[in-house]
Write a structure and sequence with these properties.
Blueprint: H1 3-13, E1 40-41, E2 45-47, H2 55-63, E3 66-72, E4 75-80, E5 91-98, E6 106-111, E7 116-123, E8 131-138, H3 140-147, H4 151-172, E9 176-179, H5 184-191, E10 206-214, E11 226-229, E12 232-233, H6 245-253, H7 277-283, H8 299-307, H9 315-318, E13 327-333, E14 342-345, H10 350-359, E15 379-383, H11 387-393, E16 405-412, H12 413-418, H13 423-444, E17 448-452, H14 457-464, E18 471-480, E19 489-491
Antiparallel strand pairs: 1-12, 2-7, 3-4, 3-19, 5-6, 5-8, 6-7, 7-11, 8-10, 9-10, 13-14, 13-16, 14-15, 16-18, 17-18
Helix pairs in contact: 1-6, 2-4, 3-4, 4-13
Bound molecules: flavin mononucleotide (FMN).
Flavin mononucleotide is lined by residues 79, 83-87, 154, 157-158, 161, 285-286, 397, 399, 450-454.
């Protein structure tokens, strides 16, 4: 089967349907969850300072590090600055340092629980200018353990969230980020993911992205050479040990073999740090419930949150996204002051507006809402109480209807796949990035968001009048006033580390 056919077949079979969820395990024992923390035994450990002023330590802590522990009775689990479907955290982070102050040259794996780096590889000596790279990889098994066949989608969404978390943190610290045009094989070789012997008995990691952190230098990017490797990956466990062959198939089919389309060097010069972002990054949480009746959002706040999704007017985080813009929110507005309830669309470029008008229900209104900022392409499609529909479509989850608004993200699916099967992953990354913007914008507005990976795909398409795969909904999200669960205790993120490491 061709790669695109494999992807299409995967996408179809992992749709949740009103009468049947995608294939997954029949039962779960949370005590048998895969270890969310990968370690490399035998690798030298470099402990990083906590709550540092800047540098790699702060970049990692605020993007991929812990931000809290939650405790309920005897159970305790770590939460991170980057969100993750089911809090299972498939995304792993790597640092490749060359000529960077305070860190020897090398390839390092980031261990968020210890807030430490593990030296995986030594770099060949060069006289080239300093270069700092961040690599991301995914361990699909962590998500597959809970979600079965649909897990590959969540892994990719999480990678998009991690990209967003890194871009916002870099902005907070006055750094720029570039998504580098490299192949998956190049990422795997640089991070040591293809070293089969180092992963004996351990779950595989698949390459996702290689990012360059710009600190003012405009020297061209160099792919470093690794001369020596250290450490072996831990086995993560997780029972029952189902295998989901379609995840291996879609992983294989979506490998990116080309270097096309992601090159862009940020403008030279060092941007001003944006320290106001740091408290938002630290406090970001998923709302687990909304306070229903009090979830009224001022209209201007609603417009401001949506405006942050437009790449042209928001260099952070969108300057990192040099791939085509292909995701367009369809909103279910429940409680926004002065705005009729119902369905709205936010085509994020003008060609998509035309395409959506043609593809969706011809009876939709396409009216500009009152006082909508001129630069915000928001359209009212249908006046209705959309709460019941939103709840049902998002796997009967209350959070989709008790919020101020929820949304689905429609991807230009056929156009994306026409460029190659690997674009399937890019579509999910873009959706995850949109989700990360919404999380942080919600915190900034004094409300809270939650990603929603569970929805009935084709029922969403039906409600919108979509009849083919030109557009497919890939991710849902909801925003409103959170109802705080007082049964849960929140603990500080690094209180488990010895006293001498406390800031
Ligand atoms: C891709 C993705 C999908 C998610 N889907 C759901 C969902 O369907 N329902 C839900 O209640 N929470 C969902 N969440 C929220 C996660 O459960 C949450 O991010 C995780 O428990 C970690 O908590 P935190 O976001 O507060 O750090 C999702 C999050 C992500 C990133």
């Amino acid at each position: 089967m061709g790669c695109c056919l494999t992807v299409r077949a995967y996408h179809e079979r992992t749709k949740h349907r009103l009468d049947a969820y995608a294939q997954g395990p029949q039962y779960l024992d949370w005590d048998q969850q895969p270890n969310p923390f990968r370690r490399f035994a035998g690798a030298e450990v470099v402990e990083l300072p906590l709550q540092g002023e800047g540098g790699i330590a702060a970049l990692l802590e605020l993007s991929l590090g812990l931000s809290a522990w939650k405790q309920y009775g005897p159970d305790r689990w770590a939460l991170r600055c980057n969100p993750s479907s089911g809090n299972l955290h498939p995304t792993e982070g790597y640092v490749i340092a060359n000529g960077i102050n305070g860190l020897g040259d090398g390839v390092y794996h980031y261990a968020p629980h210890e807030h430490a780096l593990e030296l995986r590889g030594k770099l060949a000596a060069t006289a080239s200018p300093p270069q700092l790279l961040l690599g991301l990889s995914s361990i699909a098994w962590r998500e597959a353990w809970k979600y079965g066949e649909r897990a590959f989608r969540y892994v990719q969404l999480d990678a998009g969230h991690a990209l967003g978390a890194i871009r916002y943190t870099a902005a907070a610290l006055g750094l720029q980020v570039e998504l580098l045009p490299v192949t998956d094989a190049e990422i795997a070789a640089l991070l040591g993911l293809d070293r089969i012997a180092d992963f004996t008995g351990a779950e595989a990691e698949d390459p996702d992205m290689l990012l360059r952190i710009h600190t003012g230098s405009t020297a061209p990017f160099r792919l470093p050479a690794v001369t020596q490797w250290y450490g072996t990956a831990n086995a993560l466990g997780g029972l029952p040990k189902h295998t989901w062959p379609v995840i291996d198939e879609v992983t294989e089919a979506t490998i990116c073999h080309s270097r096309r389309g992601v090159s862009h060097t940020p403008s030279s010069g060092v941007p001003e740090p944006q320290p106001d972002l740091i408290p938002l990054i630290r406090q970001r949480r998923s709302a687990q419930a909304f306070s229903g009746k009090t979830s009224n959002l001022p209209r201007d706040t609603f417009y401001a949150i949506l405006s942050a999704l437009l790449p042209a007017s928001n260099p952070v985080p969108w300057d990192v996204w040099t791939l085509p813009i292909r995701l367009h929110p369809i909103l279910f507005v429940h409680r926004v002051e002065g705005l009729p309830t119902g369905l709205y669309a936010l085509p994020r470029h003008s060609a998509a507006e035309i395409a959506l008008r043609t593809a969706m229900n011809p009876d939709f209104l396409w009216q500009t809402p009152e006082d909508c900022p001129a630069e915000l392409p928001l359209f009212h499609l249908l006046e209705a109480d959309a709460r019941k529909a939103a709840r049902t479509l998002s796997c009967h989850q209350d959070i989709a209807s008790t919020s101020s608004f929820s949304l689905g993200m429609l991807a230009e699916f056929d156009a994306g796949l026409a460029e190659g099967a690997h674009v399937y992953r890019h579509l999910y990354w873009e959706a995850g990035l949109i989700g990360q913007v919404l999380y942080l914008e919600a915190e900034a507005a004094g409300v809270r968001g939650t990603g929603i990976g569970c929805f009935f795909d084709d029922s969403v398409h039906e409600v919108l009048g979509l009849q083919d795969t030109q557009f497919q909904s890939l991710y849902h999200f909801t925003v409103g006033s959170p109802a705080i669960d007082t049964r849960l205790e929140m603990l500080p993120p690094y209180s488990h580390l010895p006293e001498e490491r406390q800031p």
